[in-house]
């Protein structure tokens, strides 16, 4: 993955992330001035980068030869080979030089301390205007220190690069809680230029990855929910590759629904979106696996089996775990013309963990929702979050931001104005969820509860429409869930401007408490939803 050249009596090779540049040759040699991982190939975007100019060179030198400190370290950056390809600017330790003003700079880094982040925030690079796609040149870094050997690192800088895309993945269904399965990701180079090597980052909120392979890096301890792997495999345009051995994925005991994602990347030397500190070994929180090297092999998977550019490979997990969800609605009591509050609850009775479930509230005829007023906040210390959105006339969608563990209850309170006293008017509280993430709720009959109205005063008027019925009673449970999918994913995931459509204020967080059995006309039910995103 890395190419390192040292000037002096001998040649040393950096073996893996964090390896030492061992001294060789003369017995009088004090060892290299620094240790450093530098990618042998880096890619720069042809487009402009930022108003300040350039991407930061992400170098992290450590004292050489295992020393705790190294004083008087200097760095020479030589970009003279990048003519018509890229240009640099410098500041701070390297002096103030505008972009393109010089090709060679000397930097005084001072004392380096082992274990400390020694990132010199001093050198930035960008493509020169008019740089040809695919053009490249070499940038060299020479580190020196008194009594130590000079060390030279080189990186081949290329303008633009490959377009690596992950495969479109099918959902997995029926995995048992606590089970494990093997997964083989695939990637394809859809671009016009080869990749000189590539990495994979795999992430999950809860699924764990076994620490199997030496060229992958995992979390420092316990179950690792991430893996960063690097492959020194050149990928030509149009080629696709798959890992040879499967990556083991563990399913959490309480998972009803979940997912994990992966994406390929090409390694850059800059701290931009292409950079991944896990595979390079510069992230101290990650550790390499203890097994053999994970290798890749070419495959003949068609191009349309892969995602669009910048897409993620996502594997959805629909396990055999279940979650019994319940809803509860307080009755709305008051006189005509007055306002009254009602609290709506969503409880997860387990045994699975749920996320993505929302409450659909159909307001009874004759009532309207009162927009909340922010509480006094003279010190500007409160954070307001909206949790309900009007999606239809007299229909609102509310839901928690966080997953509900078994035994958790989430609730919200809305204020209603009793505009008219409508005979027999009732609203409806329903639990809705994303149909692409089945809930495995064993008691769907409990997914709804009536919203009773006990109004007094004013003339009693006849209803102009029938009271709403739950989806299970109309036989339209799938259709109603489909209508909620976009709203749940977009409306509840963003803050809508203007406030015209969002009326409920987040007033209560998820609580771990039992919901009492309902009495009288308040009603209760159960709801279902996906466990994890």
Looking at this protein, list some descriptive labels.
533 residues, mainly beta, seven-stranded mixed sheet, 38% strand, disordered N terminus
How is the topology of this model organized?
Layout: E1 4-5, E2 34-35, E3 41-44, E4 55-56, E5 62-63, E6 69-78, E7 86-90, E8 104-113, E9 123-127, E10 136-144, E11 151-159, E12 164-166, E13 172-173, E14 180-183, E15 186-189, E16 198-203, E17 208-209, E18 216-218, E19 226-231, E20 240-243, E21 247-250, E22 257-265, H1 277-280, E23 287-288, E24 296-299, E25 313-318, E26 323-329, E27 332-335, E28 339-351, E29 358-362, E30 367-369, E31 386-392, E32 395-398, E33 408-418, E34 421-422, E35 426-432, E36 448-456, E37 460-461, H2 471-474, H3 477-491, E38 504-505, E39 511-512, E40 524-526
Parallel strand pairs: 3-11, 13-25, 27-36, 34-37
Antiparallel strand pairs: 1-11, 2-5, 4-9, 6-8, 6-10, 7-9, 10-11, 12-15, 14-21, 15-20, 16-19, 16-22, 17-21, 18-19, 18-23, 20-24, 22-25, 26-28, 26-40, 28-33, 29-32, 29-35, 30-33, 31-32, 31-38, 33-39, 35-36
Region (Disordered): 162-183, 273-294, 429-479, 511-533
Protein name: DUF11 domain-containing protein
Transmembrane segments: 484-505
């Amino acid at each position: 993955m890395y190419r390192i050249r040292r000037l002096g009596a001998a040649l040393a090779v950096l073996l893996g992330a964090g390896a030492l540049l061992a001294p060789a040759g003369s017995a009088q040699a004090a060892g290299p001035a620094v240790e450093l991982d530098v990618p042998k190939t880096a890619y720069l975007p042809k487009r402009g980068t930022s108003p300040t100019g350039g991407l930061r060179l992400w170098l992290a030198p450590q004292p050489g030869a295992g020393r705790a400190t190294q004083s008087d370290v200097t760095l020479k950056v030589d970009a003279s080979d990048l003519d018509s390809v890229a240009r640099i600017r410098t500041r701070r330790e390297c002096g103030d030089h505008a972009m393109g003003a010089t090709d060679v700079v000397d930097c005084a880094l001072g004392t380096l301390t082992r274990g400390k982040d020694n990132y010199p925030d001093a050198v930035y690079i960008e493509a020169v205007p008019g740089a040809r796609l695919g053009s490249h040149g070499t940038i060299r870094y020479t580190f020196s220190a008194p009594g130590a050997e000079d060390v030279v690192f080189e990186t081949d800088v290329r303008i633009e690069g490959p377009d690596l895309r992950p495969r479109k993945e099918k959902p997995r269904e029926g995995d048992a809680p606590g089970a494990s399965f093997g997964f083989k990701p695939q990637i394809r180079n859809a671009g016009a230029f080869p990749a000189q090597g590539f990495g994979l980052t795999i992430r999950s909120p809860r699924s764990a990855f076994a620490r199997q392979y030496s060229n992958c890096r995992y979390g420092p301890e316990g179950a690792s929910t991430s893996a960063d792997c690097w492959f020194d495999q050149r990928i030509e345009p149009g080629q696709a590759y798959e890992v040879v051995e499967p990556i083991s994925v563990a399913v959490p005991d309480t998972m009803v629904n979940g997912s994990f994602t992966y994406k390929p990347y090409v390694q850059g030397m800059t701290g931009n979106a292409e950079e991944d500190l896990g595979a390079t070994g510069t992230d101290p929180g990650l550790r390499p696996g203890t097994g053999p090297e994970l290798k890749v092999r070419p495959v003949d998977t068609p191009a349309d089996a892969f995602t669009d550019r910048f897409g993620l490979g996502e594997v959805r997990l629909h396990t055999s775990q279940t979650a019994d969800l319940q809803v509860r609605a307080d009755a709305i009591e008051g006189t005509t013309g007055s306002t009254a509050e009602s609290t709506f609850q969503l409880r997860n009775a387990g045994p699975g963990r749920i996320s993505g479930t929302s409450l659909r509230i159909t307001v009874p005829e004759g009532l309207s929702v009162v927009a909340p007023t922010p509480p006094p906040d003279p010190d500007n210390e409160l954070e307001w979050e909206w949790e309900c959105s009007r999606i239809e006339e007299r229909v609102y969608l509310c839901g928690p931001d966080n997953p509900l563990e078994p035994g958790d209850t989430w609730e919200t309170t809305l204020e209603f104005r009793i505009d008219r006293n409508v005979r027999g008017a009732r609203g409806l509280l329903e639990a809705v969820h994303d149909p692409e993430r089945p809930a495995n709720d064993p008691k769907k009959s409990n997914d709804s509860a009536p919203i009773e109205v006990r109004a007094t005063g004013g003339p009693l008027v006849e209803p102009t429409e029938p009271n709403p019925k739950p989806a299970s009673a109309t036989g339209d449970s799938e259709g109603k869930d489909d209508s909620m999918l976009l709203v749940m994913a977009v409306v509840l995931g963003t803050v809508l401007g203007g406030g015209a459509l969002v009326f409920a204020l987040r007033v209560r967080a998820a609580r771990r408490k039992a919901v009492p059995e309902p009495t009288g006309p308040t009603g209760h039910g159960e709801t279902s939803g996906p466990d994890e995103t």
